[in-house]
Design brief:
Number of helices of chain B: 15
Distance between the termini of chain B: 49 Å
Structural class of chain B: alpha/beta
Number of strands of chain B: 19
CATH architecture of the domain at 291-468 in chain B: 2-Layer Sandwich
Number of strands of chain A: 7
Oligomer: heterodimer
Number of domains of chain A: 2
Strand order of the largest sheet of chain A: 4-3-2-1-5-6-7
CATH class of the domain at 291-468 in chain B: Alpha Beta
Strand content of chain A: 15-25%
CATH topology of the domain at 291-468 in chain B: Aconitase, domain 3
Order of helices and strands of chain A: EHHEHEHEHEEEHH
Shape of chain A: globular
Distance between the termini of chain A: 34 Å
Helix content of chain A: 25-40%
CATH superfamily of the domain at 291-468 in chain B: Aconitase, domain 3
Largest sheet of chain B: 5 strands, parallel
């Protein structure tokens, strides 16, 4: 997993609430057995009008936002299906962080597992960030994860954010959760399993 | 004696292998998973690349359900090359990792959330995590169950655990009895409308009260399945005698002395009397009417007797913008009556509403009636077992005589990953769980409702109140 430390780049606003994972990654891109090529599918129906003809009204197709690496999102972004393809696609599109008022649970976990930082902030701050992200002259931002700040480069507006230490550490190091659990907890899991089996023999 | 606890906290505590921090993150033991062909392949590839084995292959079941065709005649061959490749890899993974597979032609095949309870694999007090968001279904049995992504499937398969953050708790108390013609689908749609599509984000929700107690286990599964549409990452209903009766005698249910012991343990699983929830919501069942969605988010719902909302009357700008966008996508006029919405497609299916009781409800409406001209109507049973049961009861004749296609089981047009896809611009009355843009096909429009309401709409050719089609016995 790619570590997240300090990332600088343009931000794009997607103010609509409840953007679901069907919209982020439509069904026709879910039929692979690997993670490849999902950048093509990300926001497909919003991005393209017909086969790969870019829609001018979609923010990520406009000069100044084509290389966006942050999205400022409306409430409940990523709701719906558990498909991790949505996060793989965003990541392959170059999106490194999402900043919004709320994220759906499964989607949020999927972001974490793929090194995509999600930052939750109050709606007044999100609106302010969306305003800056809405102009090509002010949409350049820097996210400093060690310092836990977002900086709007044009105005040097600095917005601090919270993140719990475990999540922060795994993002900073790009930790592989499976290896970490195996290395640190295998014996504990075995011991737990034995007592769990004694307490609930019908589960096994 | 410690402090009073909720059912949710009891199950999490009983599955905590290790506390990872002081913020509620734990290593959570997971009892079981069910794998499907589209969210699991990359997880298995991860195991292959690392040369790892599955921790406990017996604690997983693999079911083909998302990409298989549901055409009336079932074949092992799948024409869609990509779908065929996913199913082939799924089979290879089942073989190589020693996990039981219900393949397309298996008489036990069906939608994973219908199949697992049918087999007796879901038990009160379990933790079940699986690569499908509607895994919340098993809360109807008093199991903590939730959807996970592919990375977490790999974590589960390798370690039998997940890195899990404890949720806040919400109780939805439903008082009174549902009026005639109103189902648990209408109830959960009203809950979602009331609290919003993110109303339960960050929460595990316990549904309680006399209304819930009076519902069948299948009706409760509809509620728990849909709870994720309000953002819930866990929906719980305390297990009772109905749950025991449902499980007893199923292939994987405990037998003999173990069964007796299990029943005693399961019936003691409940929220303590003085336990405190982070949020309490109370709903009166008597005020609920049959519901439909008019928009593109499950909380954009109204009673069938109501009217499509008028955005200009919405003070909140984000909500107003959302309504305008939804009305434009759905091609509806603000203020129009729900009953004025004409449909050209009717779909009964999905993990939410394609169990035997759902089929009986729809058949009651369709008996002696015909689907309206210009409406294509599809009936996709939740599992092969449901299909056989319906045929044994003669329900298939009612559907076929009414003009419905009597199909094989699978997820089908709930998410349209297989070849059951709506054309752009079509409008579907659907017993499914998501009305997102493009969900049933790019540019297609979905109105969610109960299976009986879908049947009524199919007959009328437009959305209509099912209570005009059925009489109270």
């Amino acid at each position: 997993m790619q570590p997240f430390t300090i990332v600088r780049g343009p931000a794009a606003a997607l103010p609509t609430a409840n953007i679901d994972t069907d919209v982020i990654m439509p069904k026709q891109f879910l039929k692979g057995v690997d993670r490849k090529g999902l950048d093509r599918g990300a926001f497909f129906d919003l991005r393209f009008d017909g086969p790969y003809r870019p829609r001018e009204d979609f923010i990520l197709n406009r000069a100044g936002w084509r290389n966006a690496c942050f999205l400022i999102t409306g409430a409940n972004f990523g709701c719906g299906s558990s498909r991790e393809h949505a996060v793989w696609g965003l990541s392959q599109l170059g999106i490194r962080a999402l900043i919004g008022t709320s994220f759906a649970g499964i989607f949020n976990d999927n972001c974490q597992r793929n090194g995509v930082l999600t930052i939750t902030l109050p709606s007044a701050i999100i609106e302010e960030l969306m305003m800056h992200a809405g102009h090509a002259e002010t949409n350049e931002m820097t996210i400093d994860l060690p310092a836990q700040t977002i900086t709007v480069e044009a105005t040097q507006l600095v917005i601090p954010f919270d993140i719990d230490p475990l999540r922060k550490e795994s993002l900073l190091q790009g930790l592989d959760a499976v290896s970490a659990t195996l290395v640190h907890h295998t014996d504990r899991i075995r011991a737990f399993e034995q007592s769990h089996r004694r307490a609930n023999p019908w589960f096994f | 004696m410690g402090a009073p606890k909720t059912l949710y906290d009891k199950i999490v505590d009983a599955h905590t292998v290790h506390r990872l921090d002081e913020n509620g993150q734990v290593l959570l033991y997971v009892d079981r998973t069910i794998l499907n062909e589209y969210t699991s392949p990359q997880a298995f590839s991860g195991l292959r690349e690392a040369g790892r084995k599955v921790w406990n292959p017996a604690a997983a079941l693999m079911v083909v359900d998302h990409v298989n065709p549901t055409a009336t005649e079932r074949t092992l061959a799948v024409a869609d090359q990509e779908a065929a490749r996913q199913i082939d890899y799924f089979r290879q993974n089942a073989r190589d990792f020693g996990i039981e597979l219900f393949d397309i032609l298996d008489p036990r095949q069906g939608i994973e959330h219908v199949v697992a309870p049918e087999q007796g694999l879901v038990m009160p007090g379990m933790v079940i995590a699986a690569g499908d968001s509607h895994t919340t279904a098993y809360g109807a049995f008093g199991a903590l169950s939730f959807g996970i992504g592919t990375s977490d499937i790999e974590h589960y398969l390798t370690t039998q655990t997940l890195v899990y953050r404890r949720l806040k708790t919400m109780r939805v108390s439903v008082i009174g009895l549902l009026p005639f013609g109103v189902t648990s689908k209408d109830l959960v749609m009203e809950v979602i409308r009331r609290i919003g599509a993110d109303g339960a984000t960050g929460y595990a929700v316990e549904f309680a009260g006399e209304t819930i107690d009076a519902l069948s286990v299948e009706a409760r599964m509809t509620i728990c399945t849909m709870a994720v549409e309000a953002g819930a990452r866990g929906a719980l209903i305390r297990p009772d005698e109905k749950v025991l009766a449902y499980i007893e005698g199923r292939p994987r249910a405990p037998k003999g002395a173990l069964w007796t012991e299990a029943c005693a343990a399961w019936l003691s699983l409940r929220t303590d009397a003085d336990a405190v929830f982070d949020r309490e919501v109370t709903i009166s069942a008597e005020e609920i009417a049959p519901m439909i969605t008019w928009g593109t988010s499950p909380d954009q719902a109204i009673a069938v007797t109501g009217f499509v909302p008028v955005p200009d009357q919405e003070p909140d700008i984000v909500r107003r913008h959302g309504m305008e966008r939804a009305l434009s996508y759905m091609d509806l006029r603000p203020g129009m009556a729900a009953g004025a919405i004409a449909i050209d497609h009717a779909f009964i299916g999905s993990c939410t509403n394609a169990r035997i009781e759902d089929l009986r409800d729809a058949a009651r409406v369709l008996r002696g009636r015909r689907v309206a001209n210009g409406v294509r109507a599809m009936m996709v049973p939740g599992s092969s077992q449901v299909r056989r049961q319906a045929e044994a009861e003669g329900l298939n004749r009612i559907f076929i005589d009414a003009g419905f296609e009597w199909r094989q089981s699978g997820c089908s047009m709930c998410l349209a990953m297989n070849d059951d896809v709506l054309a752009p611009g079509s409008r579907c009355a659907s017993s499914t769980n998501r009305n997102f843009e493009g969900r049933q096909g790019a540019g297609a429009r979905t109105h969610l409702m109960s299976p009986a309401m879908v049947a009524a709409a199919a007959v009328a050719g437009h959305i209509t109140d099912v209570r005009q089609f059925v009489r109270e016995d």
